[in-house]
Amino acid sequence: MSSGPSSTPSGIVTTEANERLIPSSRRADGSVRRERRVRAGYVPQEDVQNLEALNLVEGDDGQPSGETLTNKPQTEIETARKIRTLEKKLKQADKLKEKADLGETLLPEQQEKVNRSDSWREELDALKKLNNN
């Protein structure tokens, strides 16, 4: 007692007689594609549903709680990446500062990197404190 044919995202229609068909359509040049039957059990790629794995956080009793792990590790990963990036920038700035102390002339970009090293140190310290908590 369905109200009519149901359609899938790929355009396959299921009729009331439980036949699966790709309906006829008109091409850009005006010719008509004929209606085609779809084999039983065939699922086109457009109709395949993506399954999302649930990474559940375990509670104190070892049983999964309702929370998922998707948000927390992502922020931890991003924080770790930011820490590595800042450490790399600081190492480069320290090398440039040593060059400047030896009397070499630095390019404007290199001098800017040396000047920003203090703010990067403060940001790195704040991220490390955040990551430890």
Automatic annotation (TrEMBL):
Residues 110-120 have a biased composition (Basic and acidic residues). GO terms for molecular function: RNA binding. Residues 1-36, 58-77, 98-120 are annotated as: Disordered. GO terms for biological process: exon-exon junction complex disassembly. Residues 1-16, 65-77 have a biased composition (Polar residues). It comes from the Eukaryota. GO terms for cellular component: cytoplasm; exon-exon junction complex. Residues 18-44 form the WIBG Mago-binding domain. Pfam families: Mago-bind. InterPro entries: PYM1, WIBG_mago-bd, WIBG_N_sf. This is 2740_t:CDS:1.
